Amino acid sequence: ATPYNHKEIEKKWRKVWEEHPVNINDGKKSKYYCLDMFPYPSGSGLHVGHWRGYVISDVWSRYKILKGYYIIHPMGWDAFGLPAENYAIKMGVHPSKSTAENVANIKRQINEIAAIYDWDMEVNTTDPAFYKWTQWIFVKMFKAGLAYEKEMPINWCPDCKTGLANEEVVDGSCERCGAPVTKKNLRQWMLKITEYADRLLEDLDKLEWPEKVKKMQSDWIGKSYGAEVDFALEGREETIKVYTTRPDTLYGATFMVLAPEHVLAAQIATDEQKSLVEDYIFKASMKSSVDRLQDKEKTGVFTGSYAINPLNKELVPIWISDYVLADYGTGAIMCVPAHDDRDFEFAKKFNIPIIQVIAKEGVENPDLTEAYTEPGIMINSGEFNGMNSLDAKRDVPGILEARGIGKKTTNYKLRDWVFSRQRYWGEPIPIVHCEHCGAVPVPEDQLPLLLPEVEKYQPTGTGESPLADIHEWVNTTCPACGAPAKRETNTMPQWAGSSWYFLRYVDNKNDNELVSKEKAEKLLPVDMYIGGVEHAVLHLLYSRFYTKFLHDIGVVDFDEPFTKLFNQGMINGKNGIKMSKSKGNVVSPDDLVQDYGCDSLRLYELFVGPPELDSEWDERGIDGVYRFINRFYNLVMENKEKDVAPTKEMIKIRNKMVHTITERLENFSLNTVVSGFMEYNNKLIDLSKNGGLDKETLETAIILLAPFIPHVSSELWAELGHETSVFEETWPEADENAMKDDELEIPIQINGKTKGTVSVPAEADKDEIIAKAKEVVADKLTGTIVKEIYVPGKIVNIVIK
Ligand code: ANZ
Ligand code: ZN
């Protein structure tokens, strides 16, 4: 056998491709934009887990090239953000310097994958030529009334010393550093993403995305339908508006709860209750969001005041509790303990009456042990008794509206996006504050507004960014009236650049437009987006919002950025532990590439498990993949000059191989594509034992393998005498007719006498044929079977006694 020398082969083809890159666009019919989520250039470099996504997207891109598409497959850097800044604080190195070093290093590592990125399209979010447009979008949003300032309590990470968007708070903790998030009152820049809530929700239908991700987005937007109901207060002027999604349960509302932050919370407390109420409100304000979310036991305090249930006119006590959120609905709720879990728990704890108003068959359960949350028949509900609760749910809002005590409403969980950060390493927000003119955007022709050099990168912790210290930068003149004015010193969140970078790749050198009309029309949007599922809400929601806005102002003519989405699972270390430097379980690709070659590692990245699931890295497995490549290499080398005419069997196996591999690939079942290659390789090796294998079958196998193992495929393609690249070929199509198995007619004998025939596929094995034969002659098998004989292709003989 010829030894397969991966080192020599890979070195040779890298050089060839450097001199003659794979032709990815000339004369191709239509474009296909295959995009990776661009990486943050961290200092620790790539491990085998990072390779997975890049290999998947490269395989997919190369497959599309062979399918005749013009491929757009760019790469860039999401390089603003905290790690570079924290490194600057620790080491005193300017973030732009460490970022440039990290980019160079990761770029070198990415090149080891042999992916066909088009580096002419490269972008870097920290490059002023790029962030000019990030700022331009902000100015456009400001002019459209979508960017506004607001003094409000925001999520504040005490460790990162910066404000956070709701999306960046996970279970009450900072998404980045894990510290419990607190609230802080600060002037903020906000983006009105809520104005797009309905479109962001409805257009999910257009997307070929994993259902799981679509569900996460629609839950995050959280549209609900219900009613606002006005409750009059006993002996007071004010009314309290509540938001409910269950207007059908109004007769069962036995108490009311206000959020501690509700404007009336302290005001309506009676003299006896006042100090208790104030105490509770104060304690709630000191609680971190984690504690508020995680408190198992319900707490609350009675105000001493009563509201009047607008339907049955009963008095309902008003309580304060922190399980009601201030910024959702109206910050006040009517409580129906019989039909809501939280209210049930609260009522039990504080001995509040529970009135059932919906029952399964209309029969009341006198001792409910938990809230009844199903639909049913209305009871204890006056004029609604006997109605189906679903009908009541539909009709009650209209009835309330007619009586002037309520109205139908919808609500969203989505909040406007807190867009300012009190940190250094981000895009300066291009706004000037003028005493006379208010907030004035930096004129578009003066963008980019460069991030100035500072001496100290430390966040001040006071809620001001380090930029506030650079007086010569901060003090400027108003672009509108010329009076002395001050620059905004907050910077943008890291999501700003990543919300639109995919548009810029295709026109990355254009200094006059974000992207030209022609290029946008010809090359956008993204057809396939590949990346981790951790971005399901944040980045993917923000990108959709930005794209819709850019659509609305005429920059692009589509309003969804990513037609298809694929989320790859993570590759973990042993025992499923996430690979990380701190755990010391990081597997570097470098040695593996050295020992087994890039092709083997590419294939093994896919072989470890279904690409959408997390997989555990087991280094030993790469050996099997390496052996497979070796065997295939030898099969081609040994048969390349034999000039064998294809047999029917060879044609059949070839077509079946094309069919199986293509089908699995189209389904993104990439691990079974690899096992499919292994099976067919064995079949081809068997076939070749009778004098060799025909050239077309060898060529077909090489083309199918080319997206996966491009070096060795290119080498073998050349060995077969081709002077052009294998990537100039067309992905083969299976001929369904040629795939059919021949049928064999086999006579069946019982005790040596012919009793019938059975027809079976030529490939069927002995057990299958005997079993089928026995079915055919079942009624003639009148004794016990003592022996079953099969003479291959000729006869089945069953001996009975
Ligand atoms: C009465 C009721 C009866 C309710 C019942 C539910 C079940 P979603 O679907 O999340 O919109 N609610 C309203 N505002 C709230 C706030 N600020 N904080 C906490 N809870 C609040 O849920 C809306 C329901 O959550 C509303 O409907 C209200 O309780 C509660 F059998 O009203 B419901
Ligand atoms: Zn002015």
TrEMBL record:
Q: One GO MF term, please?
A: leucine-tRNA ligase activity
Binding-site residues for ATP, renumbered to this chain: K581
Record's GO cellular component, any one? cytosol
> According to its UniProt record, where is this protein located?
Cytoplasm
User: Any idea what this protein is called?
Assistant: Leucine--tRNA ligase
Taxonomic lineage from the root: Bacteria, Bacillati, Bacillota, Clostridia, Lachnospirales
Organism domain of life: Bacteria
Q: Which residues form the Leucyl-tRNA synthetase editing domain?
A: 219-396
Tell me where in this chain the Methionyl/Leucyl tRNA synthetase domain is found. 38-180
Q: Which reaction does it catalyse?
A: tRNA(Leu) + L-leucine + ATP = L-leucyl-tRNA(Leu) + AMP + diphosphate
The EC number(s) given in the record are 6.1.1.4
Tell me the protein family, please. Belongs to the class-I aminoacyl-tRNA synthetase family.
Q: Sorted alphabetically, which InterPro entries does this protein's record hold?
A: aa-tRNA-synth_Ia, Leu-tRNA-ligase, Leu_tRNA-synth_edit, M/V/L/I-tRNA-synth_anticd-bd, Methionyl/Leucyl_tRNA_Synth, Rossmann-like_a/b/a_fold, tRNAsynth_Ia_anticodon-bd, Val/Leu/Ile-tRNA-synth_edit
